Amino acid sequence: MTTLLLLNGPNLGILGQREPEIYGHDTLDDIAGYVADEVAGAGWKVVSVQDESEGELVRAVHAHRFSTIGAIVNPGALMIAGWSLRDALAAYPRPWIEVHLSNVWAREQFRHESVIAPLASGVVVGLGALGYRLAARALLQLCDTDAARETR
Fold first, then answer.
1. What is the mean pLDDT of residues 69-96?
2. Which residues contribute to the annotated binding site for substrate?
3. Given this model, what pLDDT does residue 152 score?
4. How many angstroms separate the CA atoms of 86 and 81, rounded?
5. How far apart are CA 110 and CA 101, in angstroms?
6. What is the catalytic activity of this protein (predicted)?
7. Residue positions in the annotated binding site?
8. Average pLDDT estimate for 4-12
9. Rounded distance, CA 117 to CA 120, Å?
10. Is the distance from CB of 10 to CB of 60 less than 8 angstroms?
11. Structural domain of residue 121, as residue ranges?
């Protein structure tokens, strides 16, 4: 079975409780379910990893780099200075989408630049939990395109 990596960084494990006026009321389990629903029709399953530690997220990227078809990554605040996560994602050989629940450009200045985004296949911001669904739909398309290229 084909597997999609859903990677979430620090503080995202408390979604639904953490500043719901910014991040919404959906929990991370809800979001994992939404992503699983989006990709189920293609026969994909989702492996969901959330950790407060950058090192554990790096380990997860390495552990799943050849066993997954693509990834959805919400690095949380690691977007600002998560250099080791950035390097791990640079070595991830599949398409991946960076997602942020809030519109980072409508917030504090320090959130306006991601060290990770330049490596991503795409970035979705400001659409709440819907952003994860859209990222999953995009990966369905990107991975089909990559598979078609590999068979030529």
1. 96
2. 74, 87, 101-102, 111
3. 33
4. 9
5. 16
6. 3-dehydroquinate = 3-dehydroshikimate + H2O
7. 74, 87, 101-102, 111
8. 97
9. 5
10. no
11. 2-150
d(C-alpha 2, C-alpha 68), whole Å:
7
| Angle subtended at Cα 70 by Cα 65 and Cα 131, rounded to the nearest 5 degrees | 135
Residue 104 has pLDDT above 90, yes or no: no
Region 5-33 average pLDDT: 93
Helices 130-150, 28-40: inter-axial angle, 10-degree rounding: 40
Residue 51 CB neighbour total at 10 angstroms:
17
Tell me the pLDDT tens digit for each residue of 120-146. 999 999 999 999 999 999 999 999 755
Across 33-38, average pLDDT: 98
CATH of the domain at 57: 3.40.50.9100
The stretch 69-97 carries a mean pLDDT of: 96
- State how many domains the chain has: 1
Q: How many residues does the chain have?
A: 152
Six-digit token pair at 19? 């500043």
Residue type, 34: Y
* Catalytically active residues, by annotation: 23, 100
Strand ranges (DSSP E) for 51-150? Answer: 70-74, 96-100, 122-125
Q: What is the pLDDT of residue 150?
A: 47
- 93 contact partners, CB below 8 Å, separation of at least 6: 65, 66
